[in-house]
Design brief:
The chain is mostly helical.
């Protein structure tokens, strides 16, 4: 069994688990009440779609900043926005734990804009890293707000705190592995002990890739901080979305409550990153969190449905955009291309 088939099977298994969790959530929810909430939304859903699209623009800007050879111009932000739309659409359409679209992004950058695969993949890793680093301050603010929320139990707050510490430690480790080149160093050390020159060559290639990341962190601190700040704003827009969703459903909450809800949902989503589409995990997080805050879990399911709808609209546009703008050949990676 090849590694690719094994990865697909693991992702499919995670998808089945997510689907089972979703079924449990729906079976324990008053769906007629959910339909009642959703019937109030109307054209207002356009606001959520607009905020979600703006988040894509900010993320594309942050991604562009990781490629120092390109000018920081609006036209390039737009180009990266188009590439990201396509890549994220593929990410959400394939059972590969949100990674299926990354080779597509690198392929489009290479075919459409002559950006080498080495630089392209390095920029994708850098963008992912700064994106999750930007999540940490967002979660910290959410946890601080959570502590002053009288409607939540101490056990709920402790669980959120433990999750925050664990996730923050994982993100710090992810960054440290890159910054200290631990993968190539450790791998090269083991290859030397085992006297495997072929394995050593592989880790030398890994080291060359890590050098691209370290060079960005070391020589572009201003860009690094800017990408983290843009990522933080991106996460904060999620709280804006939640606030709008509750307003559209006829049950408005304060912005602080919306921030708490979004922080806890993202804590669960990122912690369960291996579940494709965050299926079941997102709905479960909304149900538990909104139920704890408002005493009405059906309202949480209604918010989750709105989230899924705006995601479906925007990412469907991305799937259609790819072949139309870039052509089918540009969406297929070609490993023979020079990096």
């Amino acid at each position: 069994m090849t590694d690719r088939i094994r990865a697909v099977l693991v992702s499919v298994g995670a998808l089945v688990i997510g689907a089972a969790l979703l079924a449990v959530v729906l079976m324990n929810t008053d769906l007629s009440q959910v339909r009642g909430y959703l019937s109030q939304v109307g054209i207002g859903i356009v606001l959520m779609i607009a905020v979600y699209s703006l988040a894509f623009v900010l993320d594309s800007w942050a991604w562009l900043m990781t490629l120092r050879s390109l000018p920081l111009r609006v036209v390039w932000i737009f180009r990266f926005w188009m590439v990201r739309m396509v890549g994220e659409a593929v990410n959400n359409a394939t059972p590969l734990a949100g990674m299926g679209g990354e080779p597509v992004k690198a392929a489009i950058l290479n075919r459409a804009y002559s950006i080498g695969y080495g630089d392209g993949f390095a920029s994708i890793v850098l963008a992912r890293t700064t994106f999750v680093i930007g999540l940490v301050p967002f979660l910290l603010i959410g946890f601080a707000l959570l502590l002053f929320e009288p409607g939540l139990s101490e056990g709920f707050k402790w669980a959120a705190g433990v999750g925050l510490v664990g996730l923050s430690a994982g993100i710090a480790a992810f960054f440290a592995i890159q910054r200290l080149r631990l993968t190539s160093r450790t791998g090269g050390w083991f290859a030397g002990i085992l006297s495997r020159p072929g394995l050593r060559n592989i880790f030398e290639k890994v080291g060359e890739f890590e050098d691209r990341l370290v060079d960005f962190y070391r020589h572009s601190p201003g860009r690094f901080m800017m990408t983290v700040m843009l990522s933080f704003i991106n996460w904060a827009l999620g709280a804006v979305e939640v606030w709008i969703a509750f307003y559209l459903l006829g049950s408005p909450v304060t912005f602080a409550e919306a921030w708490i809800i979004e922080a806890l949902v993202q804590l669960v989503r990122v912690g369960a990153f291996f579940v494709p589409l965050a299926l079941g995990t997102q709905e479960g997080a909304f149900t538990v969190t909104v139920g704890a805050l408002t005493g009405n879990p059906a309202l949480g399911v209604a918010v989750a449905v709105l989230r899924r709808f705006r995601e479906l609209v925007v990412l469907s546009a991305g799937l259609m955009m790819g072949p139309l703008i870039f052509g089918r050949s540009a969406m297929k990676p070609n490993p023979r291309e020079p990096s």
